[in-house]
Amino acid sequence: MKLVMILTIDSHSGVPVYRQIMNQIRQQVLTEQLKEGEQIEHVRNLAGRLKVNPMTVSKAYGYLEMEGILKRQRGIGLFIAKIEKSEKRRLKMEMLEKSMKRLVLLAIQMGLEEEEAGDLFLKYYRIYNSREGVLEE
Fold first, then answer.
1. pLDDT tens digits, 72-102
2. Domain parsing of the chain, residue ranges
């Protein structure tokens, strides 16, 4: 049985669709929502569900295969690859670093002092890490 992945596409984000697919699959693998050995959806199925060109999904899968996130079994399909703990940690840190860079730049552009930005980060980290309730906007 093939895994049906939960993915969303934001056509207004400015991020290419294949990158959005890659980022979401990578994140789900790193957080173990998608587990080693699970078979993922065929290109045409996912493309149909997301209403995108099959070549877009194929491109995302190809890059994920090159990264070692997916592995191909000829004649069967694509599966979530085994990723060593150290590599998984490195990939998680890389993903977090990209997001942190954007947030730090935004904080600086908004005129926040380092201490204010740090306090804000800690506030939300503690709220989410406590797993108590949902944040209200």
1. 999 999 999 999 999 999 999 999 999 999 9
2. 17-80, 85-130
